[in-house]
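User: Quick one: structure for sequence A, then sequence B.

Assistant: Sequence A:
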Amino acid sequence: MSNLNFPYSLKTSSHGRDFLLEFPTSGFQSKPYLPFSRGLIVRTQTLVYASSLSHGRAHIKGPRVVQFVAKAQPVAEELVEEKLRDPQTSGDSIRQRFLDFYAARGHKVLPSASLVPDDPTVLLTIAGMLQFKPIFLGKVPREVPSAATSQKCIRTNDIENVGRTSRHQTFFEMLGNFSFGDYFKKEAIKWAWELSTSEYGLPADKLWISVYQDDDETFALWHDEIGVPKERIIRLGEDDNFWTSGATGPCGPCSEIYYDFHPGRGTSNVDLGDDTRFIEFYNLVFMQYNKKDDGSLEPLKQKNIDTGLGLERMARILQKVPNNYETDLIFPIIEKAAELANVSYALADDSTKTKLKIIGDHMRAVVYLISDGVNPSNIGRGYVVRRLIRRVVRTGRLLGVKGDGMGDLQGAFLPILAKKVIQLSTNIDADVKTRASRILEELKREELRFVLTLERGEKLLDQMLADALLNAQGTETAPCLSGKDAFVLYDTYGFPVEITNEVAEERGISIDMNSFDIEMEKQRQLSQAAHDTVKLGVENGANLAEDIPDTEFLGYNTLRSKAVVEGLLVNGSPVAQVSKGSEVEILLNRTPFYAESGGQIGDNGFLYMMEAENEQPAIVEIKDVQKSMGNIFVHKGTITEGMIEVGREVEAAVDPNLRQRAKVHHTATHLLQSALKRVIGQETSQAGSLVAFDRLRFDFNFHRPLQDKELVEIEGLINQWIGDAAILETKVMSLTDAKRDGAIAMFGEKYGEQVRVVEVPGVSMELCGGTHVSNTAEIRGFKIISEQGIASGVRRIEAVAGDAFIEYVLTRDNYMKQLCSTLKVKAEEVTGRVGGLLEELRLTRNEVSAARAKAAIYKASTLSSRASTIGTSKNIRLLVESMDDVDADSLKSAAEYLVDLLKDPAAVVLGSCPGDGKVSLVVALTPGVVDLGIKAGDIIKPLAKSCGGGGGGRPNFAQAGGRKPENLLGALEEAREQLKKLLEK
């Protein structure tokens, strides 16, 4: 944060809180800095209390972060910054102090969940409670009674306020403490107050409280138990202080703590929404009711606590800076952006500061999103990333950043800023640094791709906006940019409509969003943006989950076991029994069947219910197994014999052949990831997978197609490891220990505190709950069958192993034998023979093409006599004819022959129907006709349109095609009349 560019010495007082700064008093520029007779005016980010300021000395009271503005020789800044900042108020310290505080009070500290939520109702992780949603709904049992987290969050609904207000951000950290039926209001309020006043040292007289208007209990706790004066407790309505998850579901009143920056304004007519005075930093949600369909509230069986404390907001308060952006969590990024733009943040106007804040905020968002596997695209989460990246690029250009800002005009500046974000990420998400190479490469690629079209798009947008203003003046209406124009900018030039809207607003112009939406619907359907509401609902299945325990999985050790039928579902509804021929979902107390997860599909097999007295035995063919409501396995199948009912014992038997195929492919997937990292780089990471019986599919982050030699090397490594016959090691350990040992986590998977680690010694170590071979030799062989791109920066490999590998090889061998038999050659001679045949075919085609061209020219020569003479001053020869079934290339040759034969000036228009419902068209003009202002393209466009097609070309020659041969003769006649009129002028 410091910019100390002059010699200095810094002395610390005995108690370590005050500092004496000594500096020279000459050699400094007077402008734009104010001179001071005894030294230098010191500009600060926050108020600096100086007990004395004498010649060359500044006595600074307290731990203040100071920005010194001067021009002289550079010196090390880090030492000064470290000494001038109170380590207890750093963002990292605030986060750790929060977690330690609640850990000391029995809370389990859990890691942040991914920004990609394991929840189909939410696009991105927008709150700390999201990872605990199944517990709040009662769908899964709590693993711990209470927890504390620092959760990465993304919200884009207030993006237009970023940089303009002191508190709005797209990326932020939410510190939270959660109780799952362990404690409730009294403890939550007591600890929140203790944390704020004792741990963080906030003055009690600067804290205000809001409560729900009817929540007398909470009001009393704050006033009677904590001692907050009544005049600083404000009752607010449902919109502000009653949290709901949606139309139905868990809900309850909430209470918020506000910090008062200006207590001198008094306590009368207070508005807690006044951002110039207050900031809400801690929200306590008392989740105690379930809202029913009719809107009535019923008490929940388990009362929960869900809180959120904004880390950046608390940092702003404790670091005594005017907004969230100037905290040490964001400001280093802003400083780097200011350096690239060659501006001073301290001396900048409000508009420049706003732009720098936007860059600082958005860069954090895109780095953490890409780290969590979200790559730029035009749909869903990828669209959020692309929109933010393009906003940063445009904002940087508005600030004057050229190229990479370091002299390379062809370079990218986002990676430079991203390095600063990554540097700050250590205590937020340690995985970001390990993914740094991929993040920087993705940002560079996306920025350069956008810059290619940005300038053209900006010029076009300027013209569109100028036209909109001109039209508005002519019609005396409000200026408005058409939705169609906005869509062209989006679809062709990569401008997110939000950027177009920002630029338009700067000119006082609105956008017709209704017509834009219509255009978008025609082209593609964008995923809906994330909302600020987490959709929760107490579903019918929740009651079933209360009665049925988690399924005990036995499948690591056995493929057959006895089990009891705990529940039956037909079309989603519980039933007591099901008869032959019915599709059914079966819940067992224990099972050897693997349920689909971690990319591996569910097992197939059978359930057998033994024959009882006077009963037919029941058989259920299982075709799929899924997890539901936490860890309950749902066996989906068809009853082929007898009747099955709840409470009866069955024998569950997994198909051993299919299980082996899945095991082989799953272990091969682990080997594939290790091979990819060794061949193309450690920065590549998994972006998805499928482990099936017949193949495996592995998606990974990489910026280019793999070369053939790389694929060969990858296959070679994997088959070598298979041949090594390595024995796999499987163990259960803590998530912390597993990550410390280097285990790789699978993208998109959610892990508990205890994890299963599968290791191929010396090759691979991954967190994985799937089934695997015991020895790599069981895989037998591995073959890549395809490699392709599936999204920007994401590649996909499909491969086969084990039995599927043998089947693949045998099938290909059979194809080769058939090919050898057909070509009458040995296998090793096939390539040469096919090459020879292709060369023969090429020569034959050339001969045929030449023969057709000669035939067309001969036919054209017979048509030349039909040319008519047009014009009074010039004898212009005009020929418009159909040449039946002549192909396009021959038609071109005929036209070129005819314009040479007819001499200048001449115009030739030819058409043909070469078959398959196609039309070919050619217009050829000599220089003398072109000089008259007639262009071949202008002639051929309406001609092609009449024939159901299009085309173009040079002024003297144009070609086109069509799909309506029945219109050819009429179209040629229209072209004849058009040319006559033009040539007779």
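Sequence B:
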Amino acid sequence: MCIFLGGNCIASCEPATLPPPMPATAMFSKFKHGTTGQNALDNNPIVQFFEIGKQTASAGPELVWRIHDAYRKSDGKEVSVFLFEKRCAEKLHKPKRKETVTEILRGSVRQLERFRHPKILQVLHPVEECSETLAFASEPVLASLANVLAYQESGGGGGAGPPSTGASSQTQPSSTPRPAHAREYHFLDIELKYGILQITEALSFLHYSGHVLHRNVCPSSILVTKKGTWKLGGLEFTERVNDIDGLEPVACQPWTSRLPKMAQPDLDYIAPEVQTTSVCSILSDMFSLGMVVCAIFNQGRPLIQANHSSSTYMKQLEVLEDQLHNVLPRVPVPLQEAAVRLLSRDTRQRPTAQLLSLIKYFSDPAVHALQFLDVINMKDPTQKSHFYRNTLKEVLPYIPRKLWFQHVWPCLQQEMKTQEVLAAVLQPIIFLVQECTIEEYESIILPSFRNVFSIPKSIQATVTLLENLHVILEKTPRDDIRSEVLPMLYNAFESTTIQVQSAALVAVTNVSEYLDETAIRRMVLPKTKGVYEKNAGDLKIVLNVLSCVEKTLDRLDKAQIIDEVLPLLWDVRLQDPEITLRVVNIYRLMLSDKKYGLSVNLMATRVMPSLLPQTVNPSLNLEQFTNLLEVLQEMLDHIDRNQRNKLKLDNLSLPSPERHRPLRHQYSSDNMHVPPFNIPNLRIEQRKTSSAEDMARKNSAGAGATDSGVLGGWWFGASPSSPDSNFLRVHNAFPNRRLSDNALMMPPKIRIAPSCASSPGGTPGGGLPIRRHSSIGPQERRGSTVNLSPPTLARSMIGGSMPNTSSSVPFLLSSSMSSIRSRRPSACLSSSQGSGLLQQLGSGMVRQLTLGSSYQHPANGRAFPSSNVRKCPSSRQNSTTAAAAALSCFVHIYLLH
């Protein structure tokens, strides 16, 4: 149905809502034959070529063109069908106006076919006519600019109304019903900037290449495509200009009420000189463009709202400057000066289309990228590749997300079918995949992108796809990963090109979490080894192989690691620092857990021998060297712990008590095995020797043998020349005694305490007191088990055992006796005197030892019965009292000194 005002049809039937984007065949199957006016289309020949759906927009003079979504039957290409119903013109009062309007609209389509330009609406099918309708097909159109701005004009902007323009409310035209999808459409700043630039370029093409004036630049002549680009249409009123100078005015028909409104330009946007002097030039179109710019930033309301009245137009033209200043604050600052000059009544102040496109407002890299996309089909493959790989990839982050899928993606989608530029196109596509949501990826990108995995690709395209596979798999459903993506990855290992094989290794490293263990063990590892064996000399391949192994190591079982991974590591040449670092990192990972099977034996025999030479590799920097040394030290620690534990277990299997005794104590005096002997009433104290005493002892070794020969010879049955006479060789008698336990220390102090009546054979404490061992701590003391009694020596001297009573003479070690002699020069006798005294003492002891009778001790008067005394076989009458008394006196004299 048509909307009439004053008996004239001012708009076509109400447009229907646009369904959400979907495949063309699915979309049109839902609304075929479901709209008003569909019956009128059935008689038009255009239905033979296109499947036509619902009306979505309107355009042209008085919005007489109804725009329908459609798709081409031959190839399913999405289009828009423009339909004019002639009955709208039949309502006009004067005759022949129907034919006049029909001819104007028919001529506009021919003009669109003639002037082909990226900024002018593209006609895909010429005009088809029948008795009721006129129709043609164009590129997919979302809406006209008039449809988008109509909602704002009716106050749907949600905010306060625009500043007053001086126009009377009675003169404001009724708002055009706006489609639902247009009602939800809001322009971004970059869309407005780019849209205005596109219309400027379209006018520049018409003015300087087509040599024509448009004469009806207004929102109803500007079409917004589904890509978001603005295209100039509405060429119903073009006027040819001078080919040499387009600035030269030409005669033209001003707006008049004598002609139908749909057969004339929009009065609200006509330049003043057209109405006042009936002339126009290319600058007249620039005035109209300035009016469009101000309407865009004035919520769709033009500065002049004449309401189809010439007189009203002239009145508002007088206050146009004031109206402009009211609206100017809403115009972007870089565009304000241009807007003022465009709306100047003096044509000489207006900039041309060429000059306007050069202002700073349009100098935006994102805008330039969108411009290039509009003309991408006119470029050669080299220019396309450079743009996709460099310019677009860098600019995409600055292009609003809305335009990614509205403007950029359709171009990329089309270019994916071209093998020559596929590798370059993948660069911005990967960025879109990375930044979009999963829902956007699955609904918009994946349907077209799925084919890329299976189609033949160039080497560079395959490499690009593999290197960014982790970005794709992050958004791809699991079913598609298994059916589409992974087969492409596995096939890449079989490629004969090194670049593809290397990219496959990189891909496995990046997407290992998407691979199951079976795939890694049966597919990835064997193929990785195969690539290494064929390219063992290629540094990049080896690095990628090691990275792949490191990433998948925890998914392999121990047997595969030992049988396949470790031999591969041992075969790698560790000359390059990067390779060395990768290998070291793999070994570090293996050391972290026993499940990897890196045993101590393998470390010691295979791993460390291969790594140790790299410690002196001059190519390693400090960090690499540190990492290498840390791993080697960790291996040594593993070996140390393992071997120590093993040796301790082996030591526990030895017979007791040897397994508990450290080796350093095997020559200690604790190892002597002699019969027990307790010296009665003795207390032994150790003291350290002085350096002077040590020197004197060493120097007197030979003389000491002679001096001690009398007593030592008597005691041990050796001659003065015997080696046993030397006090440093006492260990001949005690072979298991350490040297530190002998005469290297000063002899102990010997104190004789009164004998205990209850212990005829020793002290009440059970023998010798505690002594300090030379190899233990100061607080740790042990009881001595050394038997100082040499019965075998006494038996050799006197032919029998010696008495062992409390009054018996204790048998001292030769080292102690020698020490008594050589303590201090002031406290000891000379060597000759000492020798004579000891000989006399020895003779007296021998004589007393031969006596066998009992003896009454003069000190305590205690008698020892003969039955308690062990007798010498050769002499049993004499007692040992004299010898004991003599020895006691000697010891007291020694102690006093």
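The radius of gyration is 59 Å. The CA atoms of residues 22 and 443 lie 9 Å apart.

User: Thanks, that's what I needed.
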